Amino acid sequence: MEAHSSEVFVIGLTVFFLACIIGYYVVWSVTPALHSPLMGVTNAISSVIIVGAILAAGPQGFDTSKIFGLIGVVLASVNIFGGFLVTYRMLSMFKKKTKKTKEKE
Amino acid sequence: MSSNMVAILYLISALLFIFALRGLSHPESSRMGNIFGVIGMIIAVFTTLMFKSVLSYYEIGAAILIGGAIGSFIALRIEMTALPQLVAAFHSLVGLAAVFVAAAAFYDPVAFSIGKVGSIKTASLVEMSIGTFIGAITFSGSVLAFGKLQGTISGKPIVFKFQHLINAVIFLLILFLIILFVINQSPTIFWTIVIVSILLGFLVVIPIGGADMPVVVSMLNSYSGWAACGIGFTLSNNLLIITGALVGASGAILSYIMSKGMNRSIINVVLGGFGGEQDTSASKDNSDKIVKQGNAEDAAYIMKNADSVIIVPGYGMAVAQAQHALREMGDILKKEGIEVRYAIHPVAGRMPGHMNVLLAEANVPYEEVLELDEINHDFPMTEVSFVIGANDVTNPAAKTDESSPIFGMPILDVEKSQSVLFVKRSMATGYSGVDNELFYRDNTTMLFGDAKKMCEDIVKSLSA
Q1: Residue B424: beta bridge partners?
Q2: From start to end of B190-331, where are the E strands?
Q3: Which DSSP helix (H) or strand (E) runs through B314?
Q4: How would residue B228 be classed by pLDDT, with cut points 50, 70 and 90?
Q5: What's the CA gap between B297 and B464, in Å, rounded?
C-alpha cells in the first residue's frame, strides 16, 4: 500500500475492468431458471464490504469511526447470512425434485 | 501476516466468488457453488481479522453474531412468494453498509491508510464520495422498492411534472457537492451528499410501476455491486473491486434480460410511469363480445382427452398460492400418460427466475419447466394451454396491434395451441391495462375463480 496513489488507482482500474468482463461471461452462462438464486448469491457476496467495516471497527477504544464500522459489520452480516441461507433454501428445492424424478424412474 | 499473504488470500476468496456464480450454470453444480461462496466469505473475514490493526475481536464478533442471527432468522422464515421483497431489503442493507464504511473511512482515514483527517488523498475522497452516493441511492431506492413489492406503498407509478428535470438538477447538485467535498473535506458536506443521494434514490424509484419491479430489483442489485466497487477503490482493496464488479455486471445483465422480456429499453423503464394508467377504451370495444365460460369439470374433461398440455403460470398463481394444487393436477395428468410441461415467460413473477423457484418449491421437476425460447415453437403441436394467473405474456396484441402498449413484447404463443384454458379471477386486464383478445376466441374457455380453488376442483374432477 506504499505505492503511489495514481499507481494504486490504475491497478484497481485494471482489476475492475477485467472483473467486469469475467462477470459478463460468467453471468450469461447462468441458466435462467436459477436467476433468483443468482440474486441471492450476489447479494451475499456483495456484502464482502464487511472487510472495510471490520477494518473500521478494528482499533481499540470507541470513536465515531468505530461505531460506523460496527454498524457496517452488523448490516453486512445480516446480508451474508441471509443471502447465503436463502440461496441454500432455493437451491435445495431444485435438488428435491431431481431426487423424486429419479425415484420415479 | 504480510501484505502479500493478505493479497493472496483475498485473491483466493475472489476466485471462490467467481466459482460460486459459475456453479449456477446448472442446478446440479449450483449447491457446490453456494458452498464456494461461503468459504470465500469466511476466508475474506478471517484474513481481515488477522490484520495488525484489528484488535477488538469481541465487539466485531458480537456484531457478526447479531447481524448473522437477524439474517438467518429472516432467511429461514421467509415465504418464497415474498422473495423479491427480501432481496430488495437486502440490497438496501448493502447500500447502507457502503455508506457507513465510507463514513468510517472519512472519520478515521489512518485505519485505511488513505491519509490523515483533514488531509485525505484526493483520489480517495473522490472514490469515497462516489461509493457513498451509489450506496445511499441503493439504500433508499431499495427501501421504496421493498415498500412497493410488500404492498405497504401503492405499486402505482407516481408521476409528477418536471420529474426528470428535478432528478437531473439533484444529480448535478450532488456532483457539485462532491467537488466541494473533495476541496474542503467538510463532514457537513459529506452528510449532505448522503441525504441528497437518499432523496434521489426515492425519486428515481417512485415513478416505476409494479409491473416493472423485476427490472428495478435487478437494477438495484447492480447498484449494490457498484457501491461495493466504489468502496473497494477507496480502500484500494482488489477483493471488493472484483466482487463489486461481478455483482454489478450480474445485476446489469439481469436488468437487460428483464427489459428485453417486456420489449422496453432500460431507460424507458427507469423513466417510469408505466402500468395502471392506460385508458380503458380498448376493453369497452369488447364489452359485447361473447366469452365462453367453463367450470372445473369442463377443464378436467378437456385436459384428460389431450395428449399434451402446457401450463403457463403467472404471478397470479403465486398470489393465490396455487403452485402445490397445480403440481398435483400436473401429476395426475402425467399419470394418465399426458405430456405436461411448464412455460415460463422471462418476466413472470416479481423478480428474475421467481416463477422457477415457486414451481421448484412445489416439487415440479426442473426438467419440465422450460423458458420461452425453448418451448414457444411447441405450442402449435400442443392440444391444451392452461394459463393460470398470467395474462399480458400471452396477449397476441403484442404481435399484431401496433398501438398496444405491450406491442413488440415477446409472448408465449398459447393462441397457437388447439385450445386455451384461462384461469382468472375476473375479466380484469393485466398489469399493462390491456385487454386480451384471446379471451373472446372460440377455442378459449375462461375458468373464473380463485386459482388455487380451481386447481383443487380440477384435481377432484380428474380423480373422480
Answers
A1: B448
A2: 293-294, 308-313
A3: none
A4: very high
A5: 10
Query: Is A98's pLDDT higher than 50?
Result: no
pLDDT in tens, A44-75: 999 999 999 999 998 888 888 999 999 999 99
- B123·A47 Cβ contact <8 A: no
Interface subset of A 17-76, CB within 8 angstroms of B: 19-20, 22-24, 26-60, 63-66, 68-76
For B26, which DSSP code? Answer: S
Distance, in Å, from the CA atom of B175 to the CA atom of B173, rounded to the nearest integer, reads 5
- CA dist., res. A80 & res. B268, Å (int): 33
Alpha-carbon distances of B291 from B288, B422, B430, B439, B448, rounded to whole Å: 9, 11, 17, 6, 11
Enter the C-alpha cell of residue B345: 415467460
What are the pLDDT digits (tens) for B280-310? 444 445 556 778 888 888 888 889 888 899 9
Q: Residue A1 pLDDT more than 70?
A: no
Grid coordinates belonging to A31: 441458466
Decide if A84 contacts B23 (C-beta within 8 A). no
Q: Where are the alpha helices (DSSP H) in B108-212?
A: 122-150, 163-184, 187-205
CB contact under 8 A, B245 and A47: no
Whether the pLDDT of residue A10 is over 80: the answer is: yes
Using CA atoms, how far residue B110 sits from A71, B117, B161, B434, B450, in Å, is 19, 8, 46, 59, 62
Summarize pLDDT for B243-266 with one digit per residue, the tens. Answer: 999 999 999 999 999 888 887 777
Under an 8 A CB cutoff, do B111 and A59 touch?
Answer: yes
Report residue B290 as a C-alpha cell.
361473447
Phi-psi region of B353 (alpha: psi -120 to 50; beta: other; left: phi over 0): left
pTM: 0.89
What is chain A's mean pLDDT, rounded? Answer: 86
Q: Whole-angstrom Cα distance, residue B328 to residue B340?
A: 12
Answer whether B201's CB lies under 8 Å from B144's CB. Answer: yes
Residue in A2, A13, A39, A63 to test binding to B, most B beta-carbons within 10 Å: A39
The beta-carbon neighbor of B353 closest among A28, A35, A88 is: A35
Residue B287 corresponds to which amino acid?
A: S
Q: Which residues of B does the annotation mark as catalytic?
A: 392
CB B463 within 8 A of CB B332: yes
A2: enclosing H helix or E strand: none
Q: Report the largest interatomic distance among the alpha carbons of chain B, rounded to a whole angstrom.
A: 81
Task: Give the torsion sign (CA, B322, B327, B330, B332).
Answer: negative
**CB-count burial class (<10 Å; 0-12, 13-18, 19+) for A99:** exposed
C-alpha cell at B353: 427466475
Q: Pick B101's closest partner by Cβ from A15, A72, A97.
A: A72
- Give the integer Cα–Cα distance in Å for A86 and B411: 31
Contacts (Cβ under 8 Å, ≥6 apart) of B37: A41, A44, A45, A84, A87, B16, B17, B20
CA distance B413 to chain A (A): 19
Mutate to test the interface with A, among B25, B29, B59, B100 (most CBs of A within 10 A): B100
DSSP state of B345: -
